[in-house]
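Colleagues,

Please find the record for the two-part complex below.
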Amino acid sequence: MNKRGFAIGIDLGGTNLKAGLVSRSGKIFSARVVALGKNKSPAAITGLIVREVRSIRAGTVHKVCAVGLGVPGIVDFERGIVHSSPNLPAWRNIPIGKLIARRAGLPVVVDNDANMFAIGESRFGAGRGRKNMVLITLGTGIGGGLILDGRIFHGDEGLAGEVGHIVVVPKGVKCGCGRRGCWERYAASHAFEELIKFLPNAEQRSLIKKAPGLKPDYISILATGGNKSALKLWDYFGEYLGIGIATILNTLGVETFILGGGISKSFDLFAKTARESALSHTYKYHSNRLVIRRAKLGNKAGVAGAASEAMAG
Amino acid sequence: MNKRGFAIGIDLGGTNLKAGLVSRSGKIFSARVVALGKNKSPAAITGLIVREVRSIRAGTVHKVCAVGLGVPGIVDFERGIVHSSPNLPAWRNIPIGKLIARRAGLPVVVDNDANMFAIGESRFGAGRGRKNMVLITLGTGIGGGLILDGRIFHGDEGLAGEVGHIVVVPKGVKCGCGRRGCWERYAASHAFEELIKFLPNAEQRSLIKKAPGLKPDYISILATGGNKSALKLWDYFGEYLGIGIATILNTLGVETFILGGGISKSFDLFAKTARESALSHTYKYHSNRLVIRRAKLGNKAGVAGAASEAMAG
């Protein structure tokens, strides 16, 4: 049953946490970003979160009914436990939900940060009005969040949406996960090291000079300026992005894809190719229905989504 | 809300229909298989179904509360309409649910046959006790049904689970759907035409002599007899089957896969390779949790599942 009042949403990252008071329509008040100190122990971060919750409550006339928290890593959302987090290595089976609830005196809902982001975009952002939606975050890797029939789908162990490791090229290039041909090796920020190999040698050399380290931002600037090799790289990127999208579409029959993460800034450079590629790998039936859209709420989606889950929980 | 009493389940195929009275625990009474006549028009088949329903009701002391019907093709389950069916070409936007309900005087639930099969295996068969399960049918092509959080997941247009057209080999061999590299070209009955190419020429020639048309049944018999080339083919089959399973696992985080369809008879010949292949393309985390199992109810799953959906609907 839905709770009454507003909720506080918290989006915990590796270097800072974002917090805000969120209305039922997704408006964020008292938004703040707090740097994490050197001490990232569960106790230290619990302390920070509780302080923010108290400070937000002290500063509002609205009733606060719950706290929602998004954490990067593997989360047992039913029990509010963080099993592990790549950015917070000291966190192992931490019952963060209970730790905060006890000190803040409010119910706490915890989930993976990508799921909270997805629910934010689904209820208040680019996925609004659609009961099914797949969020794809394009950053160092590819993450995902599945909104199915209006709710986060968690899978058996909270690992739903680990789409970055879909195999798009069997026996392809080696991935950080130890396997080969994973999607995120072809359509995330490290992908350009691979995609550049499809260019003739002279183009490769010239591009590496202009875009040292092949950072997506550089390639984006070059492409926007009309550099043909850079434009080709974004085409390749879109092509592989589309293959993965088609795979998810064929599996789930979900036709709305919302792209977030740092690389979604370059949306206009790869969106058309990605769409064409996706449609060339799915039923014609989807042609007019497939929606690939950039996320709308930016880094507010995590806070809004976490609070929204807390209100609904 | 659940209805009281038993339900009648009907599994409509291209050449016959199966019907039965099903108890709440999935027991099937008065099972029968009725050949479809030459006239497969919606009116003729509605007539057949209504006759079966009446005959089953007349023959039981149990209260019959509803009818569930599985139809091969694209079904609007919310409105009980069959949009199209490859095996019943005359069926275009047929409100079969209403047609039967009106004449039989019972509520009717209609869904795609693979979904009804999946719900049958999930509630009474190999997937029992698991809230999430993916059914994969291995036949001429690859079909699928998704049971997520205990319910059929339909996707946006009832096209969830069209996993046969997941791309496992970008720019791979051409598929009947017009696209390239689809999973069912590498792990369904037509796959052997492709898989045989991985063998040396002499082995190819020798195998084609013994297994004309490369029918899975022949290859199965040869492999069971110890023929090394045939065993290799099943290894390749398992390898590609595993890649697709890994893709679904990575996308959905669902760890239970139930294999049905004609080729699942040869389960023992490919199960080990399929499992190894799937695990080599997913997080280690899943190693002890992944379950790949043969469907248990055979061709009764469709009848049991349809009736179960009707009782629950």
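Chain A touches chain B at residues 131-132, 144, 146, 148-149, 153-163, 165-170, 177, 179, 243, 246-248, 250-256, 280-283, 285-286, 289 (CB under 8 Å).

Comments are welcome before we finalize the supplementary table.
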